[in-house]
UniProtKB/TrEMBL annotation:
SUPFAM superfamilies: NTF2-like. Residues 9-102 form the SnoaL-like domain. This is SnoaL-like domain-containing protein. Gene3D superfamilies: 3.10.450.50. Pfam families: SnoaL_2. It comes from Gordonia insulae.
């Protein structure tokens, strides 16, 4: 993994850590599709994506993400993370285009909390 790929993943999750909705949605392409697989929720397009982000922040105030591992190519990514302070473990898998996230699927298990 190059510094460039590491930096965008780190910067993206730092945006989530800041709870700054504008900063987060700036990472999304105009045709963004976000999917929370365990909740069977899909948000398509900029308006639904913004609502998705706003709801996630309101639901889990003060949350930060510890990036455990990432694999990034020119047009795809997979990231393993731990949501703090809850210890919720999960992963995000998706595609990018021109430096923007085109789709992101989150997989997590609330029963698999980590104390790591």
């Amino acid at each position: 993994m190059t510094d460039k790929t590491t930096n965008w993943v780190t910067d993206y999750y730092a945006a989530w850590d800041s709870a700054d909705v504008d900063q987060i949605v700036n990472w999304f392409a105009d045709d963004i599709v976000l999917e929370d697989v365990p909740m069977a929720h899909v948000a398509s397009g900029p308006e639904q994506a913004r609502e998705f982000v706003e709801h996630a922040i309101a639901l889990t105030p003060g949350t930060t993400y510890e990036v455990v591992n990432s694999v990034v190519t020119d047009d795809a990514f997979a990231t393993e993370w731990i949501m703090r302070p809850a210890g919720l473990r999960g992963s995000s898998v998706g595609a990018t285009r021109d430096g923007k996230i085109v789709n992101n699927r989150d997989y997590w298990n609330a029963g698999g909390r980590s104390q790591m």
